[in-house]
Amino acid sequence: MSVLESLKRRARFLVAGFLSFLVVLAAIRWSGGEPLLQPAGDIGLIIGFVFVAGFFVVSDTYRGPSGGAP
To answer: pTM of this prediction?
Structure first.
């Protein structure tokens, strides 16, 4: 399985997880009176998302189409 096939296969899961995380994070920041965008911390979130996507790509590439998922 190629990288693009893996990302296509996992796209819904990755997008849904990322968006739900952003909604919760925005709610926490808004309720705490903090700015919604914090560049130093938000770069870390993007890097984390890339690592999660990379994990799925590696799992799919090395373990086959099931990726070890049930």
So the answer is: 0.68
